[in-house]
Prior knowledge:
Blueprint: H1 2-39, E1 41-45, H2 67-72, E2 77-80, H3 90-99, E3 105-109, H4 112-115, H5 123-138, E4 142-148, H6 157-169, E5 175-178, H7 187-196, E6 199-204, E7 222-227, H8 232-235, H9 240-243, H10 250-254, H11 257-264, E8 269-274, H12 281-293
Parallel strand pairs: 1-8, 2-3, 3-4, 4-5, 5-6, 6-7, 7-8
Helix pairs in contact: 3-5
Amino acid sequence: MRKNKKTSDIKGSNIETRESEDLVTGNMASHCKAEEIMANLVIGTSGYSYKEWIGSVYPEGTNQKDFLKLYAREFHGVELNFSYYRQLEARTIAKMLEIVPQGFLFTIKAYKGLTHEISDNPHTEAVQFKQGVLPMLETSSLGAVLLQFPYRFHYTLENRRYLQKLCSEFEAVPLAIEFRNREWLKESVYDTLRKLDIALACLDEPDLPNLIRPSDVVTAHFSYVRFHGRNKENWWTGDNRMRYDYLYSDQELVDWIPRIRSLAGRVHTLFVFFNNHWKGQAVLNARRMGELLA
């Protein structure tokens, strides 16, 4: 009987050992998977140069010229949005590259003359824009140019022809396209973007009629996610401060994790940017998303 008990103890011990090994192996696998996801994931904010971030993000008394240096100590990429309001100058971009560490990536929102105040022929504006981002192209610091179209940019023959012209102007530039109108969510559009290796931006924004709903559609070698907040009340009536005045809860971020993992597993690089910039909320959410994923 004692012998059997010892045998039983040994068997039990082996089971416990195997269970422990399985647990460790499982944890290692999960950890390795998390490392893989984080390796090709660039989390940051849409813009970095906000004076209202002084005190909450940047220390009191910080000079505006030091914002990018401080930002780049924490994040590995940023979406520039001042480029929407004016054409970029190559010398400005070159100075920015001197501030950030090697490997830091920029994505750049396209000038409004290309996406919001459009003409029949985007060639002149596109040439000027590309000249401005040339230093980033030459140093492989440009993650993507974001073509963000307004809600009023409907799925029409005229707009499809314009989009074709515009994309042809950026053949040598990594492109991401953000549609705000759900009319564009068609398999034919996805297929065209895949042929051109242009990323469809996946969005988080208010659940309002005809706006884009969250997805994990991949159409290029990289993918692009933008968090705009879910401020329904001010989306159509507020200014850029009020529209994006929103702080995501942990649960709202957690709900996105399967989608982000799915995207990260299918692309070379995944950009995740928070545009809820008012009062530094984008920074809080970007930090927290990194923690939750890691």
